[in-house]
Amino acid sequence: MWHYFFRRLLTAIPTLLIVITIAFFMMRIAPGGPWDQERALPPEIEANILKAYDMDKPLVHQYFLYLGNVLTGDFGPSFKFKDFSVNDLLLSGFPASLQIGGIAILLALVVGTLLGSVAALRKNSATDYSVMTVAMTGIAIPNFVMAPILTLVLGVYLSWLPVAGWGDGDFKYKILPILSLALPQVAYIARLTRGSMIEVLHSNYIRTARAKGLRERLVLLRHALKGAMLPVVSYLGPATAAVITGSVVIETIFDIPGVGRYFVQGALNRDYPLVMGTVIFYGMLIITLNLLVDVIYGLLDPKVRLQD
Amino acid sequence: MIFNRLGKLLTATTLSFSLLASPIVLADTTIRIGNQGEPSSLDPHYLSGDWEDRIISDMFMGLTTEDAKGDAIPGIAESWEINDDGTVYTFKLRDSKWSDGQPVTAYDFEYAMRRIMNPETAAEYASLLYVIKNGEEVNTGKASLDTLGVKAIDDKTLQITLTGPAPYLLSLLTHYTTFPIPKHVVEKYGKEWIKKDHIVSNGPYELVEWIPNTHVKLTKNEDFWDVKNLKIDNVVYYPQEDGPALIKRMRAGEIDILYKFPSGQIDWLKANMPKETRIAPYQGLYYYPINTQKPQFQDKRVREALSMAIDRRLIMDKVLKTGEIAAYSVVPPGTSNYGTPAYVSWKDIPMKDRIDLAKRLLQEAGYDENNPLTFQLKYNTDDNHKRIAIAVAQMWKKIGVRAELFNSEVKVHYADLKQGNFEVARAGWVADYNDPQNFLFLLESRSKSLNYGNYENAKYDQLMEQAYIESDLTKRAATMKEAESIAMEDLPIIPIYYYVSKNIVANYVKGWQDAVNDKHRTRWLSIEK
């Protein structure tokens, strides 16, 4: 397994290199530059600025300069946030994004499996129908609609929770963003679990377990759930990606100082180093998480062997 | 020994008294501001946005500063003398300190202005100070730093020499590009001087913390020369940009002032927060530059017809609904050193007749139903720009003009404008200082990067040149008005409306006054709940 692990890590290097190259040139091909704004700069001043950021050099030269810096772990200065380096910004943004995204995924996993299992066990009952109706609604309502509804009800009308902001990082500021991110995933995971749970409950090994006279709780928790979780685990990869893209919107709506916000701001401002930094960051994150999912999958499913 | 004990006793008594007294001392007052933008820096030389101006002008103070209405009043300069032709200003500085207790001197000002004009600094906004003698030459590397027309004569005297008489100088000196920076700190830490542990400032407030995309927190600067009159202890600026979410925060009592509320919410605001909603005239112009390099727009009649056919009143009343004022000139009315602007000649002709006139002009220019005038109207993606563009295209349809709408994100839009890659487009300008020159220069042929439509009129340029060196204020105003009337005859731009400022201010915030430059320094505000 370790062999597999390291091999996967090694293949990550060319993947990242391709991501960096494509992102670098795409960003530069995009029309509009960092200093195209309502107040146009006099040409002399723009020239001074381009020189200060090495942007007067040929593009390919800039590309290799950038690659060289990335190799030493330096993502360069941000054009927009001039008092900070991209490294500073990513480091300051990651904890916020991690908390919101991580908790949202965990919440979705726990609540989603629970609801899905309950629905499967009470198949075609009122419970099943109501859980599935809520789930369908959850999937249908995108989080940029969900978030304003939640803030209006829980923040403005009931005044239970702050509408937006991060304060001192107090937990009450995180509840609404986490809910907005988690709800569509809860819905999706609940549907997945229900489907696979129903299938598993009809399989031979569950019949065998029941025939052996095992207690129903044991049958469900030890045997059925493990099998039913497989599709959910493989969904974790896309779910993480969805939470990351979702966080870009959620962080903007809730004014959260996370990496997703920098991604949006970087792209809109044509802050090349900031966009590159966030792209590399997300690239590494997704590669790592996919690897983790594969490892977990191998542990859960005896049919899957992690071989070279 | 006895004294020693007595001393201890005294200290203990004072301590217990102060402990007793502390609950009576009023809690710190904090004002929370929805600022609509993350500052790109706290270095006055690297800013360009009004959201940055609000923070930096609470932290620093220039030679002059703004009163509660946004007008220029003495700041760090206590008094000044102006020579006869209005080109040399000699400022006397008051006793004032940086937040580390060091005195603010004329050398700090000299150092700061040399730094912003230094090409190596690569300051985006340096061109604003080209009115200072040799400013442009220094900034473009054609002259050395010490030739700049800013000279510290001694600790308390600063002399500024200009390229020509600029009656707006005192207003310009409230701008952050002219703020002093602490020479002793910048020399010690270089670019790192703005970091929290190093930065010192000379304005009413000093930095407590800046967490990117979270907030900027300021607190009262005990070394500020007028600290005794500050009524607010702490200021928190939130960078959030999502307008609807900000209004919800305002309703939930999480912020006290919201700058630039989204226009789309106006109906709701008028019904639910009428007292808090503050709309006031603002020195800005919303306009459509016409690319005069394109063959179909070289004909003056075509440009005039397009401008005439727009029913501005309808746009104000039905599309915007936020009290904007229909524009028929380049300079907004109420601008200092000017008087009434030079309006277009057809301003008061009824709309129906204007449409007939416009049709006739187009016909004369060779366009009719079989050969309609067609072009693209570009705007940057935004709800309001879109609604206005749709309305305008409809109005043009009435005179047989087919305008295709095209929108792109702001960076792409301005790149297109800069490269002349447009036919008619949306643009806007907000004044940096209160003077007609700050609007009229947009149409000078030498204003390459801002004269989007490449308007060229030798007479216009010449009149503007003449105004730059005119020291008699009345003559200067008359010359610029003559230039403006030429522009309003040529119509290289279509003025649409003069901006209004749109803010929401909680009822318990006192001291807020409407200001044409929309500058409301925390220094003048208080909270009375």
* CATH T-level topology of the largest domain in chain B: D-Maltodextrin-Binding Protein, domain 2
Could you name the CATH class of the largest domain in chain B? Alpha Beta
Mean residue pLDDT of chain A? 87
CA-CA gap between termini of chain A: 8 Å
**Number of DSSP E strands of chain B:** 20
- Going by helix content, strand content and strand pairing, the class of chain B is alpha+beta
Could you give the topology of this structure?
The complex is a heterodimer of chains A (308) and B (529).
Chain A (H helix, E strand, L loop, with lengths): L1 H28 L13 H10 L6 H13 L14 H36 L4 H15 L2 H15 L14 H30 L2 H8 L4 H38 L5 H11 L2 H29 L8
Chain B lengths: L1 H20 L8 E5 L15 H10 L4 E3 L5 E3 L2 E6 L5 E6 L12 H12 L17 H5 L10 E5 L2 E5 L7 H4 L10 H7 L15 E7 L3 E6 L13 E5 L4 H9 L5 E3 L6 H7 L4 E13 L10 H9 L3 H9 L4 E2 L24 H14 L8 E8 L2 H15 L3 E8 L1 H9 L5 E2 L1 E4 L6 H4 L17 H12 L3 H18 L2 E13 L3 E2 L15 E2 L2
Parallel strand pairs in B: 1-10, 1-11, 14-15, 14-16
Antiparallel strand pairs in B: 2-3, 4-5, 5-7, 6-7, 8-9, 9-10, 11-18, 12-17, 12-18, 13-18, 19-20
Helix pairs in contact in B: 9-11, 15-16
Give a written overview of the molecule.
The complex is a heterodimer of chains A (308) and B (529). Chain A has helices at 2-29, 43-52, 59-71, 86-121, 126-140, 143-157, 172-201, 204-211, 216-253, 259-269, 272-300. By secondary structure, chain A is mainly alpha-helical. The mean pLDDT of chain A is 87. Chain B has 529 residues and is an alpha+beta fold. Chain B folds into two domains: 30-250 and 506-527, Periplasmic binding protein-like II (D-Maltodextrin-Binding Protein, domain 2); 283-500, Dipeptide-binding Protein, domain 3, CATH 3.10.105.10. In chain B, 31% of the residues lie in helices and 20% in strands. In chain B, strands 1, 8, 9, 10, 11, 12, 13, 17 and 18 form a nine-stranded mixed beta sheet that branches. A four-stranded antiparallel beta sheet of chain B has the order 4-5-7-6, covered by helices on one side. A three-stranded parallel beta sheet of chain B has the order 15-14-16, with helices on both faces. In chain B, helix 12 (383-397) links the parallel strand 14 and strand 15. In chain B, helix 15 runs antiparallel to helix 16. Classes of the chains: A mainly alpha (308), B alpha+beta (529). The interface between A and B is large, with 51 and 57 residues.
